[in-house]
Amino acid sequence: MKVTDYLSQSSGTLVSIEIIPPLKGVGIESIYASIDPLMEFNPIAINVTYHREEYEFKKMPNGLLKRYSVRKRPGTVGITAALVNRYQIDAVPHLICGGFSREETENALIDLNFLGINNILALRGDSVNNERKFVPEPDGNVYALDLIRQITDMNNGLYMYEELVNATKTDFCIGVAGYPEKHFESPNLSTDLKYLKMKVDAGANYVITQMFFDNKKFFEFERRCREVGINVPIIPGIKLISLKKHLNLIPSVFHAVIPEELSAQVEKCRDNSEVRQVGIEWATQQCKELIEHGVPCLHFYTMAKSHGTKKVLESLF
After folding, report:
1. Which CATH number belongs to the domain containing residue 176 in this structure?
2. pTM for the full model?
3. Is it the case that residue 98 has pLDDT exceeding 90?
4. What is the span of the domain harbouring residue 77?
């Protein structure tokens, strides 16, 4: 079932969760352990992030450095299939531009279609750790917009090779990312919304936002989306502060601003157990206000840790 079908058939606020694949060598049981406690809240879908290769340098006997490509978190497609099989739930794999040619993207979409996966979150993806800016693969999609257009083409039965006759149409529901505080590469929110509108016009069916900690940012983002004609569902993304180091990590990695009030509460905590409680209470109040506002769904960035999210959901439902 498509994410948008769930949203259109519900009159209340739904729940979805997002997990991160385990590090290479760690079994899938770690994923199940993080999801099992949340299943009582009937999430409509589980998003599975995709992590492209990273580069490491090793010193050779001759003293020169050799670059190696490594994948520290493989398994997005396999985990997606496993979740559908175990929980009979819809899974949403993330598909990115980085690391794929257009033909490889097409083949990945064919595999997902064979598995009966009909939800995709289409993203450009980040640059690898030794690149100052994003560099696409040769013959790869440069922007998320290009990826969305490729998926939409396949939904219309248009594959890369024009000689295909009566090609099977895929039926992917396409989600995209939105940024209440703008994407860090955009000069301003107006420019960011212009490109988001282009993604929707190209076939994106709904938006999931980057994490934010001030609901005013989301309400303003939603209002401005509607003003420019973005009328698809907008799902707020929720992240719980759980460690003191998040005060520096989240702004630097995810470019999300932490409100002064929240930052002050975290700084007063004596240890991370107190930080987790602050994070739970803050997220709970955020979600209550968002539900009252009428958001269609709450999307929790769990990072494969369920305790805090479970506490929030127990307070809400």
Report:
1. 3.20.20.220
2. 0.92
3. no
4. 3-316
